[in-house]
Amino acid sequence: MYSIKQDKRNKFLFTLRTATPIVLLIVLLAAVIFLENRPFIYNAVILFLGLLASVYYLYYMFFSTTQEKVIDEISGAFNRTYFLKLLPKFKGNYLVLISIDNIKEINERYGIENGDRILRKFAALIDLFFMEQLGKEVPIGRFKGGDFFVIVESDDEEEVKRLVSSFLKLYDNSFIDNIEIKLFATYGRIEEDEVKGLIDHLYEELYYCKGRCKRENKREHIAKERKRSATEFERTVADIIKNGKISVYFQPALHVATGRFDLAEVIVKLLDDEGNIIHPSQFVPVVNRLGMENDFDLALAKTIITTIKEHDLPHQIHYSFNVSPYSVRNKSFSERFFVLFETSGVPTSSFVVELYENSIYKDLRYYRSILEEYRSHGFKLAFDNFGSCNASIEYIKLIDVDFVHFDKFFTKHSDDPRYRAILQGWITTFKELGIKSVVKFIDDEEKEREFKDFGVDYLQGYAIARPMDAMNFKRFIEEH
Q1: Strand 380-386 and strand 174-176: pairing?
Q2: CA atoms within 13 A on the CB side of 298
Q3: Residue 88's pLDDT is what?
Q4: Alpha carbon distance 233, 283 (integer Å)
Q5: Across 230-238, average pLDDT
């Protein structure tokens, strides 16, 4: 591998740098001691000082080399620190991000040692593939988990796209030592002053990609291009949050039993200075990466309260909006959140806190105690995207909520007997538990009739009502 050769080269140069001054020092000491007629004590002192300087020098050199490690010990690829130093030298070429999406499951199921073996062999596969395709070794770096970066020395985007597609076609859903690997990949052009921004952007694309790319030939969705750099985009999102420039829309949901619209989901939109809409798939990873989840959730809450008060929206409606579970579990955030709503003049019983996360929080008893505190302050609770690959199915065993919003795939696959049976079973279960069920993406009358027959509590979608601003929402509620 290119990284191993580079490591050997660096070690040789290090040995050369270390040995040369010591050899020169020995020659100089020999000249001072043997060529000049000096007293024994003088020669002994000179020799002692020379040896002391040599020991100190060797210690310094060996210490410095531990700070300049080149190789990732697990995979044999470059480590992250060295790879980042390498990137600016390849300006104008392409950086490919290849991720083993299921490395966490591999570690949990087969053990960390087997997971490490998969990483080593996968790095070798990457090296072999690009060697065969390009006729030369390529720099490969491992950043974290199962994420590998590859530098492709080419300015031809079509060639890079072909290489990525060929690699995924060959190795996605393949097996290494009888262990299946699932892959995602994306790429971008390397610009010297935008290395960090490029890496962040590739991770954002990977975040957006999961669950979509396999249906869209992996890369097709990445036609979206930013008109500004990733760093500028981060500043834009941060400024919007700090200045509270968040736009909210309301999408009413129909209560099937009563025919009333007493539930509305808050749709969040960020607008840049040019009036362009920033999609959640773009701004959510940035919010997370900048550590602004608490700030964003509080800014959103303030916007919702302000909008309700300014437009005199009815308080008997349940306003349902997403809050990050990481914010909810932060006691400092919760205290500010409670004060904000309790001093707003709008009853907390009007608000539904929607929760969604794709991995289970281990300390469920603590999580439940936190959510019970929200309920004690009057808030309603909901699990969002229920039934998809998320944690809410596990949570529902221990945590009481008021609403469950089913994942959109139940709507899209309602003609599939398997989906219908599972959905019907959950609806019946929730009725017994006193939990209201909400089905989204009801976009035609046929779906509306179909899900009414299922016995679902609430229907939401374009066939029911489209998202609307506060003024039109108030008019809609008054008319209905």
Answers
A1: unpaired
A2: 17
A3: 87
A4: 9
A5: 78
Closest of 382, 384, 451, 455 to residue 412, by C-alpha: 451
Give residue 366's identity as a one-letter amino acid code.
Y
As a dihedral over the C-alpha atoms of residue 144, residue 146, residue 152, residue 155, rounded to 10 degrees, the angle is: -80
Q: How far is CA 182 from CA 173, 220, 309, 385, 393, in A?
A: 5, 18, 49, 23, 24
When pLDDT is averaged across residues 260-269 and rounded to a whole number, the result is 95
CATH number for the domain running over 231-479? 3.20.20.450
User: What's the pTM value of the predicted model, to 2 decimals?
Assistant: 0.65
Nearest-angstrom CA–CA distance, 74 and 115:
10
Helix axes 293-310, 470-479, angle to 10 degrees: 50
| Residue indicated by tokens 């700090």 | 242
Q: In this structure, is the dihedral angle defined by the CA atoms of residues 9, 14, 17 and 18, taken in order, positive or negative? A: negative
Q: How many Cβ atoms sit within 10 Å of the Cβ of residue 452?
A: 15
70-88, pLDDT tens digit by residue? 888 899 899 998 898 888 8
Cα–Cα separations (whole angstroms), residue 189 to 114, 272, 343, 440: 34, 25, 50, 39
- Counting every residue written for the chain, the total comes to 480
| C-beta separation of 456 from 427 below 8 A | yes
Residue 112 predicted with pLDDT over 50:
yes
Burial environment of residue 257 by CB neighbours within 10 A (0 to 12, 13 to 18, 19 or more): exposed
Look up the CATH superfamily of 80-219.
Reverse transcriptase/Diguanylate cyclase domain (3.30.70.270)
Give the dihedral of Cα atoms 143, 104, 200, 121; nearest 10 deg.
Answer: 40
Report pLDDT digits (tens) over 279-297.
Answer: 787 788 888 878 889 999 9
Please state, for a pLDDT cut of 70, what percent of the chain lies above it.
Answer: 80
Q: Which residue has the higher pLDDT, 17 or 321?
A: 321
The whole-number average pLDDT for the span 168-182 is: 91
Residue type for 480, please? H
Residue owning tokens 């989901």: 265
Q: Of 282, 276, 284, which Cα lies nearest the Cα of 300? A: 284
Say which residue the tokens 């309920």 belong to: 375
Alpha carbon distance 405, 436 (integer Å):
9
CA distance 306 to 9: 63
Q: For residue 63, is pLDDT > 70?
A: no
Average of per-residue pLDDT across 187-215: 70
Integer angstrom CA distances of residue 311 from 215, 268, 315, 337: 42, 17, 11, 22
402 in Cβ contact with 433 (< 8 Å) = no
Task: Kindly provide the b/e burial profile for residues 198-218, where b requires at least 16 CB atoms within 10 angstroms of the residue's own CB.
Answer: bbbbbbbbbebbeeebeeeeb
- Give the model's pLDDT for residue 200: 80
